[in-house]
Amino acid sequence: MSALPFLLLIGAVCAGYILNRVAAKSIRDRGDRLHSMTSYHGLFSALLILVPVLTFILFWLMLQGPVIDRLVMAGLPDGALGERGAGATQLVLAEIKSLSRGQVFGSPEEWKVAAASHLSQLHQRADWLLIVAVAALSLLLMGLARARVSADFRARQGVEGIVSGLMVFCSVVAIFTTIGIIVSLSYETLRFLKHVPLSEFLFGMNWEPQIPLREDQIAAAGAFGWLPVFLGTMVITVVALVVAVPVGLFSAIYLNEFAPRRLRAVVKPVLEILAGVPTVVYGFFAILVVAPAIRSLGQSFGLDVAPNTALAAGGVMGIMLIPFISSFADDALSAVPRTLRDGALGLGATRGEMMTTVLFPAALPGIVGGVLLAVSRAIGETMIVVMAAGLIAKLTINPLDSVTTVTVQIVTLLIGDTSFDNPKTLAAFALGMMLFLVTLMINIIALRIVRKYREAYD
Amino acid sequence: MNDMRKIERDVKMTDTKITARGVNVHYGDTHAIKDVDVDIADKTVTAFIGPSGCGKSTFLRCLNRMNDTIDICRVQGDIRLDGQDIYDKRVDPVQLRAKVGMVFQKPNPFPKSIYDNIAYGPRIHGLARSKADLDVIVEKSLRRGAIWDEVKDRLDQPGTGLSGGQQQRLCIARAIATEPEVLLMDEPCSALDPIATAQVEELIDELRRDYSVVVVTHSMQQAARVSQNTAFFHLGHLVEFNVTDQIFTNPQDSRTESYITGRIG
Amino acid sequence: MTDATMPTGTPRKASSSELVAASLKRRRRKQTRLQWIGLGAISIAFGMLFILVASLVSSGWTAFTQTHITLSVYVDPEEVPLKRLPRGGFDDVLAVSVAKMLPGTDMSVRATAKSVEGILSKGAQFKLRDMVVADPGLIGQSVTLKVPVSDPFDQLNKGLIDRDTPDEFRRVKNTEIAWFDTLKDQGAISKPFNWALFTNADSRFPELAGLKGALVGSFWALLTCFLIAFPLGIGAAIYLEEFAPRNRFSDLIEVNINNLAAVPSVVFGLLALAVFIGWFGLPRSAPFVGGLTLALMTMPTIIIATRAALKAVPPSIREAALGLGASKQQVVFQHVLPLAMPGVLTGTIIGLAQALGETAPLLLIGMNAFITSAANSPFDSATALPTQIFIWADSPERGFVSRTSAAILVLLGFLVMMNAVAIYLRQKFERKW
């Protein structure tokens, strides 16, 4: 059933193509000179039908569900919902839906059964309505396109105009995405700030997102100061960089200058594999191998190591970043012109001296850009820390302790029941906003440095 | 052939600095240099000329083992500097390159200050015992590179900020600073404008007093202007090697004649 | 190098060569040290990858087999009366048939009966029920059935439980071990390949849990992602590379795309949660929404790869076609794009491989739900491979540790396959202009 509108659309597109092409052909056969080739006349019609109708179908499908739901809920007898909260209303709706699919559990109330049949009726009606609308719209557009066929109609320009428009639309999607991120995050953040003052969020030293679920519940009022969360993020980021930067840089130096070609041919793909491993895998690696290893190592030195120590999460994140930094540094070193290499060697520098005194300093801006991008990755990395870091925000910089991060808090606050009206959920968006801003700032600086660097040697 | 600047020509080839015998170079499967014999005299300017791709630069890079840095390049034959085989296993290319300096086609100052550019060689080789020593070397080298007056007030500014001609003279000064005995120049003027070229050529002639200079050039006029001896390379062969005047006025080989009269190139 | 033949120079000159010679040893040592440090760094990276793979394989390979027990079950009409179907005492029927193979067990003791029943997986009774419901004629007859054993016995059979541990600290007690050994001696125990890992959806019981739901969910999500990101990405790349005027607007788009590629993935999850689910009212946990989110994340990758591929097509081809009177769009779509296609596809596959491993945004849109059936459409609730890994990694049952590793190996297998295709495409069609 749901495929029918699409089949109809395909049919209409083909029909429009053939119709216009045949029409154009007959004009040509009469001996008139066509401005455009017949296939462009066909394409013009096809595109003229495809674009609006497809947009129409997609919008319809997207809106159909919510609109019908609202109609059904509005059609419920007065008082049926009573004094229920948003969550309970959702439950009722879900029950009605499963009833309409024929899944009966126990003996539902009469009004629910009625609502269920109302729901399926609406669905059927909506499906038919859509098909009729698609057919009508297609016919209308087909007629419009057919009317344009004439000897001097510039079909090619018409087609190219439509295609240009589509391409511009594609490019603008990226901007819409950014706007979407900014608008949605700001909107929810502003709602959050109605509950929690900005100064508390930015400068508060406590992060305890506990909100009493019921009025009478005895619970902490909750504290939303992001500083300890941010500090935890920084601790893990620093640990990650301490692992990744030296290993990555020295790997790159070795690969770029000293590695025999055959070793390089092996190492590069292996590093690429390391870079392609999903972060959830690294997270599991952290809890399966690294955290127990660090813990038992710490115990053998008589140190008290938390089971989800920042060292494990940060260390594994560092491993994840090694290929990132090494490939960035390798690229930056390779971008240094050969003439500088030759210059240093020609003066009698050893290859090591050439690397440390000429190549590396010359590549430094590019490398710094890469390291900055790695920092932004470490801050935004989610799965490793969600699996291996702690949940409790502590103001500590001891890497043996357990700390939490911005991304961990976002995920834990949003997993499970998410209704958009309590500060707990909204706090996740506020943290997301901060995360977005911080990483955006770092990225812009890093990309600018890298760009400048590339220009310097182009 | 055309009127050249009159340069005093030192034609006697008594002090031989470098002797090369039966040199062959392969780039992978390409045979780039075929059986080349040549003698480079001390305190003279020797020019290598020939059409592009004839192997003159490749051969030049054999003289300080710069070809070692290219993986696929193999060098065979016997090249001696002051009688010592430079491809001997015991010879360290680093030490060799300190003795046989090189200036490249494109000016390649390091992205450091002018001072640090010049001081680079002396520093890595440990030629200066103190900062004062180094200052002396830097000034001396810049003076010999005929660029001191232009840069003496901005030694701490980046070498990359200079003009093309200044950059190239800076690179020559940089090469001089390590006190080499031979100076190899790979088309040192091809990236420069005529005025800068004239300055560099003058400098080359100047350098002849202290060094054995080998210049690769694609410009015959330049070879005629600056060199005492000229070697003509063609398709990897050394076709003719003689006193510059002889080459240009009375070439022995028909290929040389075709080249200098502009029929091949 | 001797200085004997050197012409008389300044005294400094003679010493400079010596100074160089004197410094050589130290300098060589320094270079060697640098080389060793570099080699060490690479070894660390290699070692980590090795430990990663080795630990996953060593803990995951056991999950690719599953201990089964072959039973001869008498479907007792008293326990399973025809009229009560599909309900009935299938668990008791099974327990009795296991007890038959264990001489000396007294099934009238409740604890013993419970322990005996515990040998079998909870899924066994449903398997028997489905058989009987499909063919009620089996009631009163004996059927031979091969069913999985429960997780502790699976672990025991795979040698993952140490028999030397004192009884009270062991999950499988001494009597149970004795039973199991008896069953094994009778040849009832087998360890075939664990097809259930691929044909079952998720379950609370490790021995029944499989990846089907996750695989189907990932498939729908990736399909959605591809159908959206591929055309949009190519369209945007062609426009930016070939048609866009160089002005501030196209600069803005370009900077924007580069930044978008570096935005943390969890932020895309927040976007999807707020916009797709919160504002548009799309269903939670649906692979369609997941695919939509992944498409937004993959698009920058595809755009960047496509632009690089377009750039690599030499201008001479454009000029030649333009010179023949083709319009700019004809040139791009008929000549340039086909030549750039291998590069575009390579970039797309790499982008999709990244999307396949992406977890955080899927968590936020609820694709970590506990769902025991595979999705029939992209709008049904489902998990995806990486989120399934996350769920299993979080599960307390011991059996899920090896399942998690196995799921990771499956995921890595897919990634390696996709990357291999990309590399193959790149090498087969790579053109040197």
Could you explain the architecture of this structure?
The complex is a heterotrimer of chains A (458), B (265) and C (433). By secondary structure, chain A is mainly alpha-helical. Chain A contains 15 helices and two strands. Chain A folds into two domains: 4-152, no CATH class; 223-457, MetI-like fold. Chain A has helices at 4-29, 38-74, 86-100, 110-148, 155-195, 198-203, 227-258, 261-276, 279-300, 310-335, 338-346, 351-380, 383-388, 406-414, 423-456, and strands at 207-208, 223-224. Chain A has a two-stranded antiparallel ribbon. In chain A, helix 8 (261-276) packs across helix 10. In chain B, strand 1 and strand 2 form a beta hairpin. With 265 residues, chain B is α/β, with parallel strands linked by helices. In chain B, helix 3 runs parallel beside helix 6 (164-176) and helix 4 crosses helix 6 (164-176). Chain B has a single domain, classed as Rossmann fold (3-Layer(aba) Sandwich). The model of chain B is unreliable at 1-13 (pLDDT under 50). Chain B starts with 15 loop residues before the first strand and ends in a 5-residue tail after the last helix. Chain C is mainly alpha-helical and 433 residues long. Chain C folds into two domains: 66-192, no CATH class; 212-429, Orthogonal Bundle (MetI-like fold). Chain C is 64% helix and 4% strand. In chain C, helix 13 runs antiparallel to helix 16. Chains in contact: A-B, A-C, B-C.
Structure described in brief:
Chain A has 458 residues and is mainly α.
Present the secondary structure layout.
The complex is a heterotrimer of chains A (458), B (265) and C (433).
Chain A: H1 4-29, H2 38-74, H3 86-100, H4 110-148, H5 155-195, H6 198-203, E1 207-208, E2 223-224, H7 227-258, H8 261-276, H9 279-300, H10 310-335, H11 338-346, H12 351-380, H13 383-388, H14 406-414, H15 423-456
Helix pairs in contact in A: 1-2, 1-4, 2-4, 2-5, 3-4, 5-15, 7-10, 7-12, 8-10, 9-10, 10-12, 11-12, 12-15, 14-15
Chain B: E1 16-27, E2 30-41, E3 45-49, H1 56-62, E4 73-81, E5 84-85, H2 93-99, E6 100-103, H3 114-125, H4 131-144, H5 148-151, H6 164-176, E7 182-186, H7 194-207, E8 212-216, H8 220-226, E9 229-234, E10 237-243, H9 244-249, H10 254-260
Helix pairs in contact in B: 3-4, 3-6, 4-6, 6-7
Chain C: H1 11-60, E1 68-74, H2 90-100, H3 110-117, H4 123-134, E2 142-148, H5 151-157, H6 174-185, E3 189-190, H7 196-199, H8 212-243, H9 248-260, H10 265-279, H11 287-312, H12 315-323, H13 328-357, H14 360-364, H15 385-394, H16 399-429
Antiparallel strand pairs in C: 1-2, 1-3
